[in-house]
Write a structure and sequence with these properties.
The complex is a heterodimer of chains A (about 110) and B (about 110).
Chain A lengths: L2 E4 L4 E4 L4 E3 L1 E4 L5 E7 L5 E7 L5 E4 L2 E4 L9 E3 L8 E8 L11 E6 L1
Parallel strand pairs in A: 2-11
Antiparallel strand pairs in A: 1-4, 3-9, 5-6, 5-10, 7-8, 8-9, 10-11
Chain B lengths: L3 E4 L2 E4 L5 E7 L5 E8 L3 E8 L6 E2 L6 E5 L5 E5 L8 E8 L9 E2 L3 E5 L1
Parallel strand pairs in B: 2-11
Antiparallel strand pairs in B: 1-3, 3-8, 4-5, 4-9, 5-6, 7-8, 9-10, 9-11
The chains are: A mainly beta (about 110), B mainly beta (about 110).
Amino acid sequence: GDSVTQMEGPVTLSEEAFLTINCTYTATGYPSLFWYVQYPGEGLQLLLKATKADDKGSNKGFEATYRKETTSFHLEKGSVQVSDSAVYFCAPRERYSTLTFGKGTMLLVSP
Amino acid sequence: NAGVTQTPKFQVLKTGQSMTLQCAQDMNHNSMYWYRQDPGMGLRLIYYSASEGTTDKGEVPNGYNVSRLNKREFSLRLESAAPSQTSVYFCASSEAQWQDLEAFFGQGTRLTVV
């Protein structure tokens, strides 16, 4: 089955710093790739997605590029804000299957 | 825009008690899911229902049962709660069981078993 490896957290940054959260996956097929975000006390919500190789998903200043050759989908943001403090989950989804979540990476941004 | 609604939001049970977590979605989605979230473990799939009338086990089904009551509702039942079932439970739905479709999540139920 699928598995997902995300970098361990927490990641602590100062406001306006550059963010990278690494995600690699294994899959038997050719999955779609998602990043979800969970703000404190809330459920998960979709941040961005990419459905084929070299696609770039983007939303709220976050970006991630589907790299089939390295089976990676790293999340980046050029300048983080305090309001970006949350837990981020990488999740591949194969055809006719369910989402498989990584363990999550907590991001803490200080002013 | 209600989306996915879970009840209750919080619950404390004694070991051996039973309870049902309720989930309803108003997006006319075909597929629904139950996950549990534990520290350091991410989200793990308990059960899912790809379409009305079907249910299937996920990664961690032991100790749970589910019912897809109709297209809108998908409940999760703990017949005899154990401390190991202390967790945050999330219900989710998606339009169908297709890979490029996102899932929408409820706000979660925080369950403590003492």
